[in-house]
Design goal:
The chain is built from 9 helices and 8 strands. With 263 residues, the chain is of the alpha/beta class.
Length: 263
């Protein structure tokens, strides 16, 4: 009588790679601010493989980072964006359209973002008589504008005053118009103060600085609370990525592509 062949347990599925995907920017300060978010994530979760990716301007592209990650583990893309829009629905969605990859929702809206905005306004010296404009990048997607207004409502409640919304592009009113409207109703001695609902310095913050406000508060990053939001988004979809991932059995796709053709 022969002994039965021992059953070999399958190797455990590794934790998904966390791919933090931002828009990309030419601003050196903006790049450092975005990178700080992922550095904070890595400090909070040193067990995770954290990688940076982009949908525009910078490299590497998100699709390439996801494809590389999938050769050894599942992958979760967390958009380092504040609302849904073209990049989440097209670029990121296409990058994760493969087994073992998943994308979370964007970072906003989230109560922690409201708290950061309130802290930025306090640091900028917000006064009782000041009017507040929440400046967002904007998108042609109506859901993005709705999400910004959720944040504006939360900030208004947090501050105990009205908050006017302005957009950099894609939706109305634009930031200069919102600033002008806020100025019309100013109390004596009041100023128009902009809360920058932008992750980092770059093109849109430059436009906000030109919009005619008296004070413009800093962008959201760097701030350690952003890393907490990123990790929450990752946790929301990690099981989706794990459940759909299959351990590769063939050569790395790049190796197969680079191999010389045989007659």
């Amino acid at each position: 009588m022969t002994d039965p062949t021992p059953t070999v347990a399958p190797a455990p599925v590794p934790a998904p790679v966390l791919v933090g995907c931002s828009h990309g920017t030419d601003s050196v300060t903006g790049r450092a601010a975005i990178r700080s978010i992922l550095e904070d994530v890595a400090r909070l979760r040193p067990d995770l493989d954290v990688r940076e990716a982009f949908v525009d301007v910078q490299q590497p592209e998100v699709a390439d980072v996801v494809a590389d990650a999938l050769t050894g583990a599942p992958a979760v893309v967390v958009p380092l964006l504040l609302s849904v829009g073209f990049h989440t629905k097209v670029d990121v969605a296409a990058a994760v359209d493969r087994p073992g990859a998943a994308a979370s929702g964007p970072l906003g809206p989230d109560p922690r973002l409201v708290e950061i905005l309130a802290d930025r306004l306090a640091a900028a010296g917000l006064r009782e008589a000041d009017a507040v404009v929440l400046a967002a990048a904007g998108s042609s997607d109506p859901a993005a504008a709705d999400a910004v207004r959720v944040v504006a409502d939360g900030l208004a409640e947090r501050l105990g005053r009205a908050v006017v919304v302005g957009f950099g592009a894609g939706a109305h009113p634009r930031v200069p118009v919102a600033v002008a409207q806020a100025r019309e109703g100013l109390a004596p001695g009041g100023r128009v103060v902009v809360a920058s609902y932008l992750l980092a310095p770059g093109y849109f913050l430059d436009r906000v600085l030109e919009a005619g406000a008296d004070v413009v508060a800093d962008a959201l990053a760097p701030d350690p609370r952003l890393a907490e939001v990123v990790l929450d988004r990752y946790a929301q979809v990690r099981d989706v990525a794990v459940g759909a991932w299959s351990r590769p059995t063939g050569p790395h796709p790049a190796a197969a592509t680079d191999a010389p053709a045989r007659a």
